[in-house]
Structures are given as C-alpha cells and as structure tokens.
Design goal:
Layout: E1 2-7, H1 10-19, E2 27-32, E3 42-43, H2 51-60, E4 65-68, H3 71-75, H4 78-83, E5 92-94, H5 98-105, H6 107-116, E6 124-128, H7 132-141, E7 146-150, E8 159-162, H8 165-176, E9 186-190, E10 196-204, E11 209-211, E12 216-217, E13 220-222, E14 226-229, E15 234-237, H9 244-264, E16 271-280, E17 283-290, H10 298-304, H11 309-317, E18 332-340, E19 362-365, E20 368-371, E21 374-377, E22 381-389, H12 392-405, E23 411-412
Parallel strand pairs: 1-2, 1-4, 2-3, 4-5
Antiparallel strand pairs: 6-9, 7-8, 7-9, 10-11, 10-16, 12-15, 13-14, 15-18, 16-17, 18-22, 18-23, 19-22, 20-21
This protein binds adenosine monophosphate and glycine.
Adenosine monophosphate binds near residues 197, 276 and 287.
C-alpha cells in the first residue's frame, strides 16, 4: 500500500516508525513530517489543513490509505471532503468524518453523547452568553473546584479549574465573551472529579474494535505535576492500577457503550478513539474523548504493539476487524519528552541537536527539522526517548540515560515521569 500520513509530531514519527515495519507497505509519505519521519518515509511539503493539496498528493503519489494524525483536519472535515469525490471511493481513510470528530471537537456534543448512551462522566450543563445567569446558578449548586471547558478546540488550553466561586463566574464571562475565540462561545461547566487519570485507546471501524495498550501521560511542565499544562512531558504503559478488573469495567461501561452509541446514532467512524479517563474510587469516568491517538502516549503504545498496524487498518476495510489477534510486548515502555527551554511559553528554534546512536532507546522526533545534514530544533517538544524494561523503573532508567546524552541548547525534561504510580 502507498500511505500518506498527516502530521509532524512525535505521534506521527512513531506511526511512521511502526508502519515502516509493515509487510503491506509500499511507499510511505509524510505531510509535512519532521527530521525523524524522513528516516522512515518521504516527507512532502503539504499542509494537512489544506484539503486541495492533500487531494493533489493522493493523486500524485497514488495513495491507497491516508492516516490522519492530528485533530484539526479531522474536526474541519478532511475525511468528508475527500470522500465527496467518488474518485477517492477506494482510498482508506484512518480518522473519522466531521460528525464523529465532534466527539473531540465539541465538548457539548461529547457530553450529550455520553448522557444519551449512559456512559459514566461528570455531571454537567452547557451555557452561552444568553444563559449566563443560569450558569451562575449552576455554579452555585456545585462544590469547588469549578471546571469550565470551552466547547470547541482550544489547543489544549480551553479547560480552566478554579477554586473560588466569584473567580469562576468572572472567568466564565471572559470565556463566553471570546477568551478562546469562537471555541468558548459555548462553555461546558462540570462537576470536578477527583482521582488518577489514564488514557485508553481503541481502533474501530464503527462496528468492532481492537483495544490497544493503555497509558498514562504527564501533562504539566514541572516535576510533581506542577506548573503550566503542556502537550505532554512523558508517558508510561502499562498503567499498574489498570488491572484486569478495572480494564473490564472500562470495556463494559465505557468502550462498548461508545461503539454501540456510534452505531445507534449512525455515526460512520473509522479510526482511533482516545478515552481520557479518571479512576474515581475504582470506577472509571470519561473526562474527554479524542478522535485520534495521544501524544506522547503513542510513543509508548505503538512500540508495545506487536501486530502489524497496516494489517489492522486493512481488516477494518475488509470488515474483519473482529478476527484480528492483537498482541502486545509484555514489558513496560516509557517515554521522556525533551523540550525547549521556555516551553510551553515562548522558546527559540533552530538549535542543532546531537543525537547519540543507541540500540536501547527509540529516539522519536517531535519538533525537529532537517537543514542540510543537520537536525535542528523546530518546536517546543523536540524528542521523545522511549525504552522498554522489565519494570517501569528499568525502562525509565534507560530513557534517562540516553536523554542525558542528547545535546541541544535549552534542553529540559522532567526527571520524575511515573513518580505517582
Ligand atoms: P480535557 O481537555 O477535557 O481533557 O481537560 C483537561 C484536563 O483537565 C484533564 O486532563 C483533567 O486533568 C482536567 N479535568 C477535566 N475535566 C475534569 C473534571 N470533570 N474533574 C477533574 N479534572 C478534570
Ligand atoms: N496526551 C494528550 C493528548 O494527546 O491530547
């Protein structure tokens, strides 16, 4: 198969690494990719949000399958746009259509979906500027802290958790008046759930699904989970508290009702679903859905997947997903994200990166680019260093050993990934 992979982060570098091992792969193109993806395929200068350019690339490179990494093109309807032209009937698209992507693109849509299908999640209500007085009443009924969520995509910044009631009311008004642009013209207010979070992933064709390894990511910039939220500073899999009993609850109370819900609502869905979950006294609740894989969770879950990823994609096209036998590496995998000093605020780009050769860690590129033969920093998150181990600590030790040897100006990473497990 000729594959076109869209995106340029650590998630896409890992997808490229994994698909490059498939016996079904003919050519792999990555749009736009990074310095790391060019080791596994051919980077092409196409913006995933420019639908016409994506379609030109399908024609030019005789693409059989498109794998959409990030959420923005999904939520904007890239899948629908391609499929509106019958000439692409046979192109397999991994990633839902616009309606399914609303599970991530609209918090209000996803909360209504969960409510309709009895999927455990925090109690909530949605408001606009016209109903702000009712929102104040709802806030008064809730116990602090108050959780305010912009309805639409806000680059991971749209959720505020506030302790003080009057501050929550003031922030609510700011959001409804456009603090996050149109994304916060509607706001979901929800009950605060207290517990430990984990990420669970499935690949589905909207009828059957394959469960992938679960993971836990570390979103805050500072050690001990302090400071600003980032795209993710590290991840581990498996998650020790997600034992068989807890995973069974997740399957029966959350995953299966979600797939059934897609069927009942006639939402055509081919792609990954990322369940952002929280464990409240040993009961799983959904914090959010994403219509894609997580980053940096992908950097640990795909290395643990033994099964050929393209075989899974092909099975969904042939309606044989239920026959796929998913196999995992029975070890811990951990990743440590190296970032640029200043991230998630402002940071400099263009520093040369020295990456040592090693056999015991995967060096998965995120914000990097090639310039002549040099690898340069080109973003906030730079490299994810993934390793296996018989224990979580062994895996982390290997990643930290190799992370130490990577050199670029302003390198920073958290030294406490997995600290809470
Ligand atoms: P979201 O974008 O919905 O995943 O929210 C971002 C982060 O806010 C989550 O990863 C949680 O840490 C936190 N969060 C969101 N909703 C809640 C909630 N209802 N209770 C507690 N924490 C939450
Ligand atoms: N690691 C969280 C995300 O990808 O949204």
């Amino acid at each position: 198969m000729n594959i076109l992979l869209l995106g340029s982060g650590g998630r896409e570098c890992t997808l490229a690494w994994k698909m490059a091992q498939s016996k079904h792969l003919n050519n792999l193109y990555i749009a736009p990719g990074n310095a790391g993806t060019s080791e596994y395929g051919i980077n092409i200068n196409v913006n995933p949000e420019n639908f016409d350019s994506v379609k030109e690339a399908i024609d030019e490179y005789s693409i059989d399958c498109i794998v959409i990494g990030p959420e923005a093109p999904l939520v904007k309807g890239l899948h629908d746009d391609i499929k509106s032209d019958p000439k692409y009937n046979n192109v397999l698209i991994i990633g839902p259509k616009k309606e399914g992507a609303q599970l991530e693109g609209s918090k209000d849509f996803s909360k209504q979906f969960m409510k309709r299908h009895n999927i455990p999640t925090a109690k909530y209500q949605s408001f606009t500027l016209d109903t702000i007085e009712n929102a104040y009443v709802f806030l008064e009924e809730l116990k602090p802290p108050y959780v305010l969520k912009a309805d639409g995509l806000a680059a991971g910044k749209g959720v505020l958790i506030i302790n003080d009631l009057s501050e929550a009311k003031a922030s609510l008004r700011e959001m409804l008046e456009g603090k996050f642009g149109t994304a916060s013209k509607k706001v979901v207010i929800e009950e605060f759930l207290s517990g430990i979070e984990l990420s669970v992933f499935v690949y589905t064709d909207g009828k059957d699904y394959c469960l992938l390894p679960e993971a836990k990511d570390y979103k805050r910039i500072g050690e001990g989970d302090t400071g600003l939220n980032t795209g993710g500073m590290g991840a581990v899999t498996p998650v020790p508290f997600a034992d068989t009993e807890f995973m069974n609850k997740i399957s029966t109370q959350i995953i299966e009702p979600t797939i059934e819900g897609l069927k009942k609502d006639k939402i055509d869905y081919t792609g990954f679903i990322f369940f952002g979950l929280i464990n409240v006294k040993n009961e799983p609740f959904v914090i959010e859905y994403n219509a894609r894989l997580g980053d940096p969770e992908t950097e640990v879950i795909l290395p643990r997947l033994k099964t050929d990823l393209l075989e899974i994609f092909i099975a969904s096209k042939n309606n044989t997903l239920s026959e796929i036998d998913i196999e995992f590496v029975d070890k811990y995998a951990c990743t440590v994200m190296l970032v640029s000093d200043g991230y998630p605020g402002s940071y400099k780009k263009g520093h040369e990166i020295y990456i040592p050769k090693t056999d015991d860690s995967l060096m998965l590129h995120a914000g990097t680019k090639l310039s002549d033969d040099k690898v340069l920093t080109n973003g906030g998150r730079i490299l994810a260093v993934t390793s296996f181990g018989e224990s979580m600590q062994d895996a982390l030790n290997t990643s930290y050993f190799n992370a130490e040897k990577i050199k670029f100006e302003g390198k920073y990473y958290r030294k406490d990934i997995g600290f809470d497990l």
